[in-house]
Amino acid sequence: MTPSSSWAVVVPSLGRPSLRVLLESLAVQEHQPSAVVVVDDRRDASTALDVSAYPSARVLRGGGRGPAHARNLGWQALDAEWAVLVDDDVVLPTDWSDRLLADLAAAGPEVGGLQARLEVPLPADRRPTDWERGTAGLERAAWATAEMAYRRAALAAVHGFDERFPRAFREDADLALRVRRAGWQLLRGNRLVVHPVRPSNPWASLRQQRGNADDALMRRLHGPQWHEDAECPPGRLPLHVLTTGAGATALAALLGRRHRLAGLAVAAWLASTLDFAVRRIAPGPRTRDEVLAMLGTSVAIPPTAVLHRLAGAWRHRQAGPWPVPVRAVLFDRDGTLVEDVPYNGDPALVRPVPGAAQAVAALRRAGLRIGVVTNQSAVARGMVTRQQVDEVNARVEDLLGPFDTWQVCPHGPDDGCPCRKPAPGMVAAAAADLGLRPYEVVVVGDIGADVDAAHAAGARAVLVPNERTLAAEVEAAPLRAGTLGEAVELVLGGRR
Ligand SMILES: [Mg+2]
What local confidence, expressed as pLDDT, does residue 494 receive? Predict the structure, then answer.
């Protein structure tokens, strides 16, 4: 193992101030990674992410699709043996890289992942709040990706994180289960990272109930015993169901004027709600604000948790294993489906690239939907009319058969529109038009903007380079094919 080339760092970031602290603590390490990829996962990435604390860091755009998608973008962009996943809210002690290298060196070939030990500093002068105790729970969490090194081969074997997990919750436990099932060992290392408690507000615990929808997906994917398999504590959901049931019964009984039943149900609801509140208040600082917040949220959490759980069970009722099958392929038009005639407004000049007809026919035969996502800035530049673009598109359909969706961006590069690739708008709109989620879609294009638009939308992408494709774009693309036919084979092969 050559320490300098065998590990790289991936940081999904929401642009919090803590990113700078992390990058500063990385920059002063004795051993440096071969690459640092920061995935900017802000929904609004109109301003550049500040990575000046680690100037050589490469920034990719995640498009606000959550840490699972962002980390997948990051590790796929690397060629190191190990991808060290680090959240943007941890701090690396000065001896971190020494200990990391020792952990990696001690890992046999059967080890797929190595978790850091986490330390959550709590206030020394008072009892920790509910939120602080919740964060401190990370110290015991199995396979938390706050800092975890995964062998890239292990990530590739299971197709990385399941992007149906939209938030930093359960996506790491799900990955760990699949990596272990694929035959790899996961171990805890000896290195330590510090995870400070983020500022929060009293209602954070209510927002966290959205995680119950992810638990529904875990159960669907891994069975009812998933808590034990993933080493996750079982949680309070059964009690929340009882509390919510008592509350609902009380309301129904009151409306039906069944006073005796209403009295019993109110008593049951009150007892379980108070028990919940007391369990959360007793270990805390018991200030006025904390007690009020705990009382309020203890009333609201049980029904919120149950609703999120039901919504998740419904949403994921048919979820199958990750990766989900590809259901649609969106093609770039110029230089991908047809020969690139710059600013073409003449249908007579449309020439499909070799193999285009067979490629789209193979997709139709396999039952996939197909579409086109095309930048036509010639319209904004006044060089062709929108009608001419439509006539050219009609000619493409004459030659290649019908497409299920057409997305055309008529804007110029300086219009700041959300549709012009590399922005994700057209890919997202095409997926919505086809009734699909972005991760069910693959974009096939000939330049980096096609790949970036796909990734920012949460779709996969295959680059089919031609003589106009920049070498850096070819190098950056996680999936490449020599021809359109090979790209389609890749897509169809990946479905089986
Ligand atoms: Mg093109």
Answer: 60
